[in-house]
Specification:
Shape: globular
Largest sheet: none
Number of strands: 0
Number of helices: 14
Oligomer: single chain
Strand content: under 5%
Distance between the termini: 9 Å
Structural class: mainly alpha
Length: 303
């Protein structure tokens, strides 16, 4: 259990490091945009390719992929419904921040340590569906809602989807798995080295974006987002554990996934659709603290 606490503490310390560097004016809040660009276009795609390569498709894998998609869809509708009387930008922002799970930068590290092998395969399978939503479809949907456009154009949706490099990487991974084509070892060696820095950069970015002093309105939004996520997470966990006819290990991995923090890209996409407040970054940071505590407790129960 010592490893659980050490790994959890590491994530928190990196966030504090980023926040401290900003307060000391060694780095600026605007530098988070540079880190976000590096993460989205370089380190995250490499981390995804490294962790998800070699997946062999079977019925359970497809079920977990579908659960990854469906869990996001449920949370998207919860976020949209909760803000149905608000502006399009606010609704879109809630859709982005209530849904999505930080698997590659958070849950994967724990599962690799405590459920290696099959547990990692189950997690990556869930994350394929999660990533298809969080790295593409959710952004396209929230962008559509935020824009207030009356016509939904499938061409615009596909353009937004495939403009996301991490989304493209998962499409490639899925195609390779279908045709059982292995990723060359030399390429995995390169991507694993580059992808290894993804967690650090992601946590540092959150620290730079985090603002502890926020307006009362933003504080209310943070509380609402976290509350909606926790309600949805608890409901999904109960359904998974008591109703789904899947192996117990798969149930444990899914529950760990549900309790993962907000997706790292939620704050980035929130800015892209026109929301410029501090709620996404603050909610993300708070969800990491909650995620650390919940994951630690779950591991103590599951192991």
């Amino acid at each position: 259990m010592q490893d659980v606490f050490i790994r959890s503490l590491t994530f928190v310390l990196i966030i504090i490091m980023g926040y401290t560097l900003k307060k000391l004016k060694i780095l600026k809040k605007e530098d988070a945009n540079v880190l976000a660009t590096i993460i989205m276009n370089i380190t995250l795609p490499c981390a995804l390719l490294t962790s998800a390569s070699g997946i062999e498709l079977n019925i359970l894998i497809f079920v977990l992929i579908c659960i990854g998609i469906l869990s996001n869809v449920i949370m998207i509708f919860i976020g949209n419904y909760a803000m149905k009387k608000e502006s399009g930008i606010m609704r879109g922002t809630y859709m982005l921040n209530v849904s999505g799970y930080n698997i590659g930068n958070f849950a994967l590290a724990f599962v690799q340590s405590f459920f290696p092998g099959l547990g990692v395969v189950y997690l990556c399978s869930f994350d394929i569906g999660n990533a298809l939503m969080g790295l593409g479809i959710t952004y396209a949907m929230s962008s559509y809602v935020a824009s207030g456009e009356s016509d939904f154009k499938i061409g615009d949706l596909l353009k937004k989807l495939f403009s996301s490099i991490p989304f493209d990487v998962y499409v490639i991974i899925f195609i390779l798995a279908i045709f059982k084509i292995p990723v060359p070892a030399f390429l995995l060696s390169i991507t694993s080295t580059i992808g290894a820095g993804n967690s650090f950069l992601a946590m540092l970015m959150i620290g730079l974006m985090m603002e502890l002093k926020i307006s009362p309105t933003e504080t209310r939004n943070v509380v609402r987002v976290i509350t909606l996520r926790m309600i949805g997470t608890i409901v999904l966990s109960c359904i998974t554990y008591f109703l789904l006819p899947i192996p117990i290990l798969a149930k444990k991995i899914l529950i760990l996934s549900y309790f993962a923090p907000l997706s790292t890209v939620s704050a980035v996409f929130s800015k892209k659709i026109g929301y410029h407040g501090d709620m996404p970054a603050t909610a993300n940071s708070l969800s990491i603290i909650i995620g650390v505590l919940c994951t630690t407790l779950l591991l103590l129960i599951f192991i």
